């Protein structure tokens, strides 16, 4: 596998506050990677820096293209979809309309209905609710819609910020199963930021641990899950 995304010496700032301190990591094409860390460690900021939504220095290369001078919109057009924390669906539009909007920047209009059907196959509950306003969906359904809408861009890389946030454990399991399927079958490379370390490590093949804006550990998800420090700090046993 070749690296799809290379991050080197990434530093990010909110005014005078420095949130990332020389972060370095790679994402292999086709991988499902999790970035674990406590509250305030810099997980959200890392995803925002990749999308150029926060002031940063250092180098981020996606498939050989430098992202630093590009707008968020042009980064999306390169094939990077970002599902922010708190979902971000259009609450007054229907499920179907949200999916159509997800594809708004695509030129291959003819392929869109087929892709919507594929999303309904991944997320049958969205098909059942396709005429319902997004704002009336449950939290889990809204999270599924947010993921499906991001996938309507046909991204090469999907960045997910705490998809498990606020969801019941069974719903999280369902969602994570679908993410695994999307990674394997649709060949979407995934970076998922999580506080639910246990589930994230079951899902991912590679993991990074971030503490106060720096990567402090990396490896295969299985090895990270068996690491004593990780077990104590993030898994609670
Ligand atoms: P959480 O899991 O709580 O979302 P996180 O790992 O995603 O945490 P970030 O949100 O990336 O952490 O925050 C990293 C650091 O940057 C924290 O110290 C936070 O207080 C600071 N920070 C984040 N957003 C801002 C902001 N808009 N203004 C100032 N400081 C910020």
From TrEMBL:
GO molecular function, one term: ATP hydrolysis activity
PROSITE patterns for the chain: ABC_TRANSPORTER_1, ABC_TRANSPORTER_2
Entry-linked InterPro entries: AAA+_ATPase (IPR003593), ABC_transporter-like_ATP-bd (IPR003439), ABC_transporter-like_CS (IPR017871), BCAA_Transport_ATP-bd_LivF (IPR052156), P-loop_NTPase (IPR027417)
Keywords of this entry: Amino-acid transport, ATP-binding, Nucleotide-binding, Transport
Keyword ATP-binding attributed: yes
CDD domains from the UniProt entry: ABC_TM1139_LivF_branched
Biological process (GO), any one: L-amino acid transport
Role: Involved in beta-(1-->2)glucan export. Transmembrane domains (TMD) form a pore in the inner membrane and the ATP-binding domain (NBD) is responsible for energy generation.
Official protein name in the record: ABC transporter related
Organism (species): Rhodopseudomonas palustris (strain HaA2)
């Amino acid at each position: 596998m070749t690296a799809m995304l290379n991050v080197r010496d990434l530093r990010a700032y909110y005014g005078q506050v420095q949130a990332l301190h020389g972060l370095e990591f790679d994402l292999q094409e086709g991988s499902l990677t999790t970035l674990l860390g406590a509250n305030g460690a810099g997980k959200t900021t890392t995803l925002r820096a990749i999308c150029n939504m926060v002031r940063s220095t250092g180098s981020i290369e996606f498939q050989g293209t430098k992202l630093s001078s590009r707008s968020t919109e042009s980064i999306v057009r390169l094939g990077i979809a970002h599902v922010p924390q708190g979902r971000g669906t259009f609450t007054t539009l229907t499920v179907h309309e949200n999916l159509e909007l997800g594809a708004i920047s695509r030129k291959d209009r003819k392929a869109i209905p087929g892709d919507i059907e594929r999303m309904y196959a991944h997320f049958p509950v969205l098909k059942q609710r396709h005429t319902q306003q997004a704002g009336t969906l449950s939290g889990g359904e809204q999270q599924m819609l947010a993921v499906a809408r991001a996938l309507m861009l046909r991204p090469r890389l999907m960045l997910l910020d705490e998809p498990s946030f606020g969801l019941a454990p069974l719903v999280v399991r369902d969602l994570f199963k679908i993410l695994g399927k999307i990674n394997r079958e649709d060949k979407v490379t995934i970076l998922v930021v999580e506080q639910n370390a246990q589930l994230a490590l079951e899902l991912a093949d590679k993991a990074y641990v971030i503490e106060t804006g720096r990567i402090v550990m990396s490896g295969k998800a299985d090895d990270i899950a068996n690491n004593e420090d990780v077990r104590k700090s993030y898994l609670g046993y």
